[in-house]
Amino acid sequence: MTHSWNTASIESGGEQIYYEVTGAADAPTVVLTHGAGGSHAAWFQQVPALADAGYRVVTWDSRGFGCSTYDTGVLGCDAAVADLAAVLDAVGVERAHVVGQSMGGWWVTAFALAQPTRVLSLTLSNTIGGLWTDALFQHFASFVAAAPDADERRMGVHSALGVSFVTRDPARAFLYQQLNTFHSPPLAAIAGALGSARVEHATLDALGLPVLVITGSDDVLFPAALVRASASQLSNPTIVEIADAGHSPYFERPDEYNAALLQHLAETG
Length: 269
Prior knowledge:
The chain has helices spanning 47-52, 77-91, 103-114, 134-145, 165-168, 170-178, 187-196, 201-205, 224-231, 249-252, 254-268, and strands at residues 5-12, 15-22, 29-33, 56-60, 96-101, 119-125, 211-216, 238-242. By secondary structure, it is α/β, with parallel strands linked by helices. The chain has one domain: Alpha/Beta hydrolase fold, catalytic domain (Rossmann fold), CATH 3.40.50. An eight-stranded mixed β-sheet has the order 1-2-4-3-5-6-7-8, sandwiched between helices. α9 (224-231) links the parallel β7 and β8 (238-242). It is globular, with a radius of gyration of 17 Å.
């Protein structure tokens, strides 16, 4: 099926924020927010599936990623909330389902807290979105400290991918790496912003939003067991663990990922 597809940028806080819109203007909107290992292009396996299911899909680049600028040196949850609001205003969207992968989970959770009337549902994809537990924080700190040097990289091997993915699908594993060579994101600033941003489970619960939490059985950044333990502190989350997938099941296991997301969207209206 052929859908309308448009690209544009909007000024926000001294930055140019790039976004793309696919699908009919009168369709319910889903916003996909990438992680620190991606950009709007990372969602290429979700956009057609969501559009075919009758949704209008918005993808965008966080400042410093993809086609968005990072001239001001200002980055974090507050900036992301302002940027996402600017994108939705430009598109003419009053309310949307928001999906955040890894880093993007912090951005969409912050957006839901800041502008809850604009959010229909929240999906946290391989992320905790600021819902830290002591165990998660300790693991994250250890993971960052042990990150390999860039010179040690090997083709198709990436900490955001499951260990079996490069063997199962070497071309797409390499594509994942290639998609990250078009920009140089401010990863040090990101790590600091994520580590310092905390959300209380009760505070998110108070919004009354449907929350879907997707994780991967082989996620080494945010292990499934630790993500489940955090998500279980919410009053009524839907938790989906995708087998044989690492930190990026949307990329590694798109069929399973899309099915979980589409079911959540259908159930939340």
